[in-house]
Amino acid sequence: MTLVSSHRMYDVNPTVAEHWQELYDRISKMSGVPLVPSDIRPPAPISALWSRPDMGLAQMCGWPYYCADPRPKALAAPVPKGILAAGKPVYWTEMVVRADSSFESLEDTFGHRLAWTTPGSHSGYNAPRRLLAKSYAECGGPLFSRTHGPVITPRGAIEALLDDRADIAPVDGFYFLLLKRHEPELAKKFRTVMRTPTSPILWLSLAGGVGRHFRETRRSPDQCAVAGSQGRRLRAIARRALHCRIRQS
Q1: H helix intervals, 32-153
Q2: Could you tell me whether strands 73-80 and 113-115 are parallel, antiparallel, or unpaired per DSSP bridges?
Q3: Using alpha carbons only, what angle is made at residue 115 by residues 113 and 120, rounded to the nearest 5 degrees?
Q4: How far is it, in rounded angstroms, from Cα 36 to Cα 25?
Q5: Segment 57-85, tens digit of pLDDT
Q6: Which of 133, 144, 206, 214 makes the best surface tag, with the fewest CB within 10 Å?
Q7: Cβ distance 217 to 31 under 8 Å?
Q8: 239: CB partners within 8 A, 6+ apart
Q9: pLDDT at 227
Q10: Does the structure show a pLDDT above 70 at 116?
Q11: pLDDT value of residue 211
């Protein structure tokens, strides 16, 4: 059985997308299960993939995961490098502004324009809502003059800042790490004024009903040796190119 896959959540640019695809290809070879890239791309909602019974490997947010019935299987998760993750499979939201703006704090942006990604997103919607809840309660009314969305993706959020459609935007913390590594000149155009607390990062998940295809795979001694080599290469890709390591669930 051939299953569909997607890594669009952290496709910072075409180069990073190629690294993710190489990692997925090696997982496919290690498992013996064919994976083909999904044709569901922005602005089409990624939820269209998460509900498919042939989802073989995809980055999936925690809230849709818990709401799904049947529940998908969490296969693994990236562990971002750096002190913010502290060696755990977690992420956070960077509340960013343009680097040349006058804003020095989150509070400075109140009364201005806020971008948001999509209501199904934790980093781009629900984490900022929680962060802003106390200030909203104290204010007793809207904190921003206008909100702009849905911008769908972290890339859409930073483009809203660049195009002057928003003054502050939430950006997935792991996405921002990848942006700093692979597009440092673009990353320098933004400045963080606040971070949310950490929460479990997006899992690499598969539809619950397809797990048996992985379990039923049997390897010869030669295939096991190939899988070991693929595993070492997989870990190297994650460390060097994707600024993380992969932890199996």
Answers
A1: 47-50, 62-67, 127-139
A2: unpaired
A3: 145
A4: 9
A5: 999 887 788 888 888 888 888 999 999 99
A6: 133
A7: yes
A8: 81, 245
A9: 46
A10: yes
A11: 58
pLDDT at 249: 64
Nearest to 234 by CA among 27, 4, 15, 21: 27
CA–CA distance, 25 with 23 (Å, rounded to integer):
5
* DSSP state letter for 15: H
CA dist 230 and 166 (Å) reads 44
Number of other CB atoms surrounding residue 94 within 10 Å:
26
| Whole-angstrom distance, CA of residue 95 vs CA of residue 192 | 6
Phi, psi of 176 (to 5 degrees): -65, -35
- The candidate with the shortest Cα–Cα distance to 146, out of 159, 160, 165, is 165
Q: What angle do CA 173, 175, 180 make, to 5 degrees?
A: 95
Cβ contact 202:9 at 8 Å? yes
**3-state DSSP assignment of residue 133:** helix
Q: What is the pTM (predicted TM-score) of this model?
A: 0.89
Task: Please tell me the distance from the alpha carbon of residue 179 to that of residue 173, in angstroms, as a whole number.
Answer: 10
- pLDDT tens profile 159-197: 999 999 999 999 999 999 999 999 999 999 999 999 999
